[in-house]
Design brief:
Helices cover 81% and strands 0% of the residues. The protein is mostly helical. It folds into two domains: 170 residues, CHAD domain (Alpha solenoid); 130 residues, CHAD domain (Alpha solenoid), CATH 1.40.20.10. It is flat.
Length: 301
Amino acid sequence: MGPDLAIRAIPWYRLQRMPPTGPELEAILGALHVQLDAMHAREPAVRGSQEPEELRRMRVAVRRLRAFLRMGRPMFGPKAVDGLRRELDWLGTILGRARDLDMVMASVTAELEAVEGATRRAGRALLRRLEADRGRAWELVHAALDGPRYARLTLRLKTLLGRAPRRHAELSLVETAAGEWKKVRRAVKRLPGHPSTADLHQVRIRLKRARYAAELAGGGRRVDKFIEQAKAVQDILGEHQDAVVIEEYLHDVIDSREAAHALEHQLVGRQRKRRKKTRAAFLHEWPRLARRGRKAWASAA
């Protein structure tokens, strides 16, 4: 596992305020502290620039916070957890819009290098529109981070992590991870012969949850192999979703002039090929992931 995935020890000054109540709680608390620190660590760069990689890392930390809070719901209670997860969803949506436009900009810029003539002029107009939309999305990011809602969110997270849970519910991280994996298998089993983009996006969301739960549960070599393969399949589905986002954006913003229409046809055609390729890659890789999932969670079943 990389450094972003490591579950480090809870600092001594936090342990003084949080009486030990078992390894499951300590694992969840450790994971939440890591991701909260990661979110704060990215703040200066995201506030002071329009750096795509720093934004992406901050969004990953937000996403992991939501996932780990969801796993800790039996301990902290639905009221506290659900409210925080809604606020993290608000923040993640704002970060996600800017991230999507960063990704669309990078992809379209690279693809426009191959076009010429009137289509190239239409491409420059598209890039100007993209740059304006991206700038507005980043302005919303900066406004959110400077606003009172974000300040309240971070305070609520720190408060939750600095006090003992209200309930001492029984929780098995291994059983939780096995349960999340079961949901992935069910979702894939329900897929039609030609799954839609929405179908595959839902599988990706469930797979992400299963992977995060597996990272928290641990369990040796078989679980590590499952996590590795889950990451590979998740990346395939992520590329598929990126192609969907690019295609939808192009449909929304390209005008009806002949040169622009030719540009849209060319760019959208590439994204459709990309979607077809990644869908085939997912279907090819899924049996391997299914085998590794069965081996990883056989004892929990």
